[in-house]
Each structure stands twice: as structure tokens, then as C-alpha cells.
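hey can u check if this looks right to u? its 253 residues, i copy pasted from the old doc so theres a chance i mangled smth
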Amino acid sequence: MAFLYLATCLLVIVGNIVNVPAAFGEIVSGAFAPEGVAGGALGVLIIGFQRAAFSNEAGVGSAPIAHAAVKTKHPVSEGFVALLEPFIDTVIICTLTALTIVIADAPYYAEQREVVAGGGPTPDGVVVTSRAFETFLPQFPVLLAVAVALFAFSTLITWSYYTMKAWTELFGRSPRSEAVFKVVFCLFTVLGCVITFTSVIDFADAMLFVCAIVNLLACYILLPKVRDELRSFREGRRNGTIQEVPVDERSTT
């Protein structure tokens, strides 16, 4: 999914390479435009935080559930791997998407900008992206539909694993407990498909906010421990006492 999407973005950007500097200029000028700052900088900031958390989950505390399953001798090294994920997801993928939309400058995108500027609702990001790509690649909506479907499926798998671990931590790990969880998870999945998209996003934002409060509080409490582990790891690498673990050894550690 990621390679398919990134390859398509790069195809559009490379095909319009001469417009890239102007696109960056428009993005920066739009972010710091006087009317944007005066008209609701706080609101834009809040929306940005919401979408960023929904995009990469940084600070929410979900990623440690997956990274905790990794077999490694040095947890700090896995922390560096975790730091790379928001960079790829937000900085690379979202920047390529923004460049593609601005470069394409589809009529639909221009119309929606006027609607938002006039105080109207924010347009659906998938629709804006699809229309922008369609101006350069007529068949892209089909590829985007496949990418979105794969993203939705992978999200279901990932969050089912996260919530399963949380459920078993609270109610015990047994076949009966896991079976009950799977039924509840499937029921909520069906419920999410029949209610409005706005309700789903609002509920997800609220739950992510609760998770962030708990996780960031835990990070603050554990900060001294993290600092000691990082200092020990860096000193070990500098002194040569910590070596890279071969891949075949990692699987049995």
C-alpha cells in the first residue's frame, strides 16, 4: 500500500518538477498567511493536533504495544526504530500528498479552498486527493481505492492486536476472554460502518485524547528511567561494549 501510494505521488511530482518550488511556497505562505493566523490559529492548531494523532499516533501509547513484542537485547535501539515511524508517516507521506494536491491544483481543490475560506465545512481528504491525482492520472481513483481499502484493513488488524492486549491485561488471558473480545470488536466494527463518518472521527479523537493523557503522564514519570537507559546505551556503543545483534540471533534472544 505504502509503496503503491508513494510511487504514484512521485510520478505526479516528477512529472511537474518545475512546479515544486512554487508548491512549497504556497504551502508555507498559506500556513503563515495573516488571515489564517488572525482567523483562528488556535482552531487550526487543534485540528492539526487531532489529525496528526490520528495519522501517526505519536504520543498516544499504542506503538509501544507492538514494539514490546520485538525480541532485542537493547530496548533503546527499538526506541530509535519507533522514532522513525512518525517521520515516515507524517513528514514524508503527508508532504508528498500535499505537494501532489497543490501541484495538480484540480478545479475541485480550488472550489473547496473557497468553501473553507468562506467558513464552510472541511472537505473529505480522500476525495480531494483522488480528484487531484485524477487530473494527472485518470485511473488513479482505482489505485487510491485499493490503497484506502488496504489501509482500513491493516488498521483493523493493528488495533485489534492493541485492544486485545489491553483487554487480556484487564480481564485475563484465556480462550473465553479472547472470544468475548473478538465478538465485541466485530460488533464495534459493524457499528462504525453504519454510523456517520463524522461521529466515528469525533469518537476516535476523544479516545485518542484520553490515551494521550495517560501515556504522556506515564512518559513524564518514566523520564528518569528512559534517560538512564539512553545514557547507558550510548556509552555502551561508544565504548564498544554494545554490538549490533545479528538477525538470526535476534529471533532466538
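Confidence is low (pLDDT under 50) at residues 246-253.
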